[in-house]
Amino acid sequence: MTVWSPIIDLIESDERDDRDGRVFRALADDGRRRLLDTLFTRDGQSLQMLCAALPAMTRFGVMKHLAVLEQAGLVVTHREGRSKLHYLNPVPIHEIADRWIGKYATATTATLTELRRDLEPGGA
Description:
The protein has a domain at 5-89: Winged helix-like DNA-binding domain superfamily/Winged helix DNA-binding domain (Arc Repressor Mutant, subunit A, Orthogonal Bundle), CATH 1.10.10.10. 68% of the residues lie in helices and 10% in strands. The protein contains 5 helices and 2 strands. It has helices spanning 5-27, 30-41, 47-53, 59-71, 91-119; strands at residues 75-80, 83-88. The chain is elongated and about 65 Å long. It starts with a helix and ends in a 5-residue tail after the last helix.
């Protein structure tokens, strides 16, 4: 362990918290969640296709939401000729689930398992 190790850990922690914050903010909006659902249903869509799938949202609104999703790493784009295709990147959501949901679910699950074992006939 070097002198720099705690500093590096702190920087990595801040970067992870910043990444998590961008993902949480991106997921907080219903329109952005609808865009993610649309890409989940059919990945690799153009802006025009996404606008057609979400007629209640303006083209500018779709573009704005896609920019936020890209910044959070939830959407990845790929250019094919003149068109730009948008793809869902589920990795940040999975990381959030592991970091924030998983640790709480594990404790709850363990507690409920113990409770069931204690209450069932022939348990502990």
